[in-house]
Amino acid sequence: MPRSMRALVAAEVGEPADVLRLESLPVPAPEAGQALIRVKATPVHASDLHVLRGRYGFSAEFPTVGGHMECVGRIEALGPDTEGLRVGERVVAAAVPAVPGPQAAGTWQEYLVADTRRLLPVPDRLSDSSACQLAVNPLTALLLVTRELDVRPGEWLLQTAAGSTVGRLVIQLSRHLGIRTINVVRRRGAVEEIKALGGDEVICTEDEDLVQRVAETAGPAGVRKAVDCVAGPVGAQVSQALAPGGEVVVYGALSTHRQTDPAALTIPLQARSVIYETKAVRGFWLNRWFGAASPEDAMRALSEVRGLVVDGVLSIPQGRPFPLERFAEAVALAESPAHGTKPLFVFEDGRDEEGGDEDDR
Ligand SMILES: NC(=O)c1ccc[n+]([C@@H]2O[C@H](COP(=O)([O-])OP(=O)(O)OC[C@H]3O[C@@H](n4cnc5c(N)ncnc54)[C@H](OP(=O)(O)O)[C@@H]3O)[C@@H](O)[C@H]2O)c1
């Protein structure tokens, strides 16, 4: 095993493309209850970029290695007091730091140490692209639909940014569970794609009125459950479109992707509607969920997600691979409009080929 490795390190808070540097760091040694993982692939999420900008829900200690959420890799070594895992095993590491709690090691590096209670073995037929994206977006989709809102078969679920990775997974999961979806997109070009994916109704905010279209679609009973990751005026329209007693779970703020525009970070609610129609607007954050869930419950939920992906119920869009050296391109792609695919940092380990879920795209 080499003594040093390549890592993408930010010395200080700032714009990721400006502050990230490719550096050489010592390979860490696993302590009790930890495994050393040789990383194979790890995504670039917008939330990873918010951490580097100092605008996420927790503050990283700088210098920090980028990529705070998830990766797939092979166990290179095990520390003392580890059970049930073996060296060479391919695992997903849910690096998502719990809040409050210790910050996780960044994933944008060749090796990292991880708590073995946060490692999920994955079968060879799951590609690196799918495996490295398992722990954040598919888990979020599952938790939002089944645990946060407990949407029942036949019910309507309204969601924004339906073309996002989470949005696509919500559509697939909803179809599987017999839930009907009303999907909001911002571009007309995305409408047919969402329908082809199985979205029951699609509303395009480019040229349609969200509140009016929801009323036309759902009829007098209305829609009682919604998830929103756009916030701002769109989030407000979602709350307005809800039936009395309805609830919307806000889990993102894409209206101001870099979270710099205070007006777009605000969701202007109509007090009369919230009070007299007893509507609820509340948040969801996977980090907080991980902080509250027991390691066993977290692994149970992750295993459920793994099963849904392996069985083909959920198909995670194929990521676009980048070597660490091309981090500026990867970071730019992660937030560019209509990017369609998620940038992934990939590492060659020469020991096995890419896994086989051919249909994940
Ligand atoms: N709270 C949590 O724990 C949690 C967990 C996972 C994800 N998230 C959040 O969920 C959101 C989606 O994540 P993702 O990884 O699925 O995203 P993604 O795959 O990168 O896709 C981003 C999507 O958002 C759309 N979009 C961007 N800006 C928009 C705007 N101003 N108005 C409407 N749509 C907009 C894009 O549409 P175009 O195709 O038109 O560009 C694209 O479909 C992000 O905000 C992320 O931070 C939160």
How does this model look, in words?
The protein has two domains: 4-134 and 311-346, Medium-chain alcohol dehydrogenases, catalytic domain (Quinone Oxidoreductase, Chain A, domain 1, Alpha-Beta Complex), CATH 3.90.180; 137-284, NAD(P)-binding Rossmann-like Domain (Rossmann fold, 3-Layer(aba) Sandwich), CATH 3.40.50. Helix content is 30%, strand content 24%. The chain is built from 13 helices and 16 strands. It has helices at 16-19, 46-53, 128-131, 137-148, 165-177, 191-197, 210-218, 232-241, 262-265, 271-276, 286-292, 295-310, 327-335; strands spanning 4-10, 20-26, 34-43, 64-65, 70-78, 90-94, 111-115, 119-121, 156-159, 180-185, 201-204, 223-228, 242-250, 280-283, 320-322, 343-346. β10 (180-185), α6 and β11 (201-204) form a beta-alpha-beta unit. The chain starts with a strand and ends in a 15-residue tail after the last strand. 46% of the residues are buried. Residues 350-356 have low confidence and may be disordered.
